[in-house]
Amino acid sequence: MKTEPFKICTTCSKHWETLEDFLADPELELSGYQVYFEDLKGGLFYFTHLHENCFTTLAIPVKAFTGLSNRPMLASRSDKPVCCPDLCVRKNELDPCPVECECIWVREIMQIIRDRKIQA
Is residue 25 within 8 Å of 6, Cβ to Cβ? Predict the structure, then answer.
């Protein structure tokens, strides 16, 4: 039985069979994050496919990357912390956040992805 690939590029049709293949591809760059506060796993990571003549943006739900972090998700907050720098609502802001809130789990996954790209 053939399994579905992890992701297929919507422009050039390149296949990445697994998450590991996807993360190891030097032609992919994490380019953004769209938060979904009601369910953080429902947010989207945006990747740019830097392949010649492609340059499409791929949107992949955060839930596809949950296995990358051992950090437990924190309980959702009822109010935004006073010291919150609003990094989660800035799509292209990928740096770590200094505030310990439920979104820190997603920010950690972004750093893991970025670190793997540097090592690849």
Answer: no
